[in-house]
Amino acid sequence: MRFEARTFWLPKDAEETAQYQDAFAVDAETGRAAIADGVSSAIFSGPWACLLSLGAVAEPPPLDDTAAFQTWLAEKRNAWAASVDTSKLTWYQRPKMVDGAMTTLLWLELVPSETGADGLATRYQLRTFAIGDSCLFHQRAGELLSWFPLENSGQFGLNPAVVASVDRQLDHLLAFKAAERECLPGDLLVLATDALALWAVERQESGEVVDWSRYWDYSDDDWRGEIFALRDAKQMRFDDTTLVLLRVIEERPVPPMMPVELVGPEPATHADELPTDSVAETFEPAEALSSDAAVVEGPVVEQTVAEEAVGAEAVVEEAALEQAESLIEPEARIQEGTPIADDAAKGGDSNEVMPARSAGAARAGADGAATAEADKHVDDATSASN
Q1: DSSP state of 192
Q2: Which terminus of the chain has a lower count of CB atoms within 10 Å, N or C?
Q3: Partner residues linked to 178 by β-bridges
Q4: Is the pLDDT of residue 159 over 70?
């Protein structure tokens, strides 16, 4: 494993967890992590954000190969379409399926640049890719080295660049920004969706550096209390708020068993769960913002109708699959997660999607890592009814 991780999330409306549209996935073994912010005014953006964040961690989009990227994105689009039971859509939901879901996406990878005598990495190159306004902050010894992909608070807007779940003939506007820099053990990598990222950038611009490391020892209650206070003081937008902290370490073997932690609530997949603006507003994606960072243009992608086996992305052992089948419909799985757990998620006839776990611990789950703690988290997540 190449980093340790802590994750925090809070819906726009704390009492309506089913409307949470963010997603994230991390895999400490491969050194990959992703975060996505689904557009609430589009339909079923939560499951779409789940699919892309997990997909970017399991198999990053091949941005340098147009044909391969077309295949990668088409597979994710097919999986999203397969997860929606159109027979249960309401009259006002059906027209929104034409435009589909939309989400921002940011992912990173720690690539070994120096190894020790044991062949394990002691230094890394940090490679980061993004479209939209979810951000990465790179901190070392309390000093903020950089943030990415936006350069200042004025670049945060209401219509960020996004990836759509259907081919709307707008894929030629996709422009993924890319950056690379050295990363050392002890560095802290912070992934944040736009509400939190904008707050942090504004503080940085005013001369107040955010000490991201203090969040490492926060409890969930501490996190929620601080976000509530910032919202009440009108210092932070009322929006889904997600934080992923990655503490970089010298590479070491993954423990044979790792604790299980669920990501968050189920994304809204019923008409009566969707926020009012999700059926009343129209969202138009903006072109990618200019930046000095390298830009990789996304190719046009043709949507196909082949069904995707999403579970194959996570390379899950047979035992883990058997364990998951008691909870899900195997033909409609959506995954999302943290660096310490992985499982398939539910996408059944009712258009519901269960919170899943990260690709990193699917291997451990196959060896029997479904512990009582995991059951507790499942019960808690279910009672929260995302």
Answers
A1: E
A2: N
A3: 129, 294
A4: yes
Residue 317, judged by CB atoms within 10 A of its CB (0-12, 13-18, 19+), counts as middle
Please, what is the end-to-end C-alpha distance for the chain in angstroms? 30
Residue 158 to residue 173: CA distance in whole angstroms: 17
Q: Under the phi-then-psi rule, with left for phi > 0, alpha for psi from -120 to 50, and beta for the rest, what region is 273?
A: alpha
Indicate the average pLDDT of the chain: 74
Helix or strand run (H / E) with residue 190: strand 188-192
- Residue 201 tokens read as 């950038």
User: What is the amino acid identity at position 47?
Assistant: P
Residue percentage of the chain with pLDDT more than 70: 66
Q: What is the rounded CA–CA span in Å between residue 338 and residue 360?
A: 8
> Nearest 5°: phi and psi at 365?
-60, -35
Rounded CA separation 209/202 (Å): 10
Strand (E) or helix (H) holding 136: strand 135-140
Q: Give the contacts of 214 (CB within 8 A, at least 6 positions apart).
A: none
* Helices 66-83 & 45-58 angle (0-180, nearest 10): 140
3-state secondary structure of 2: coil
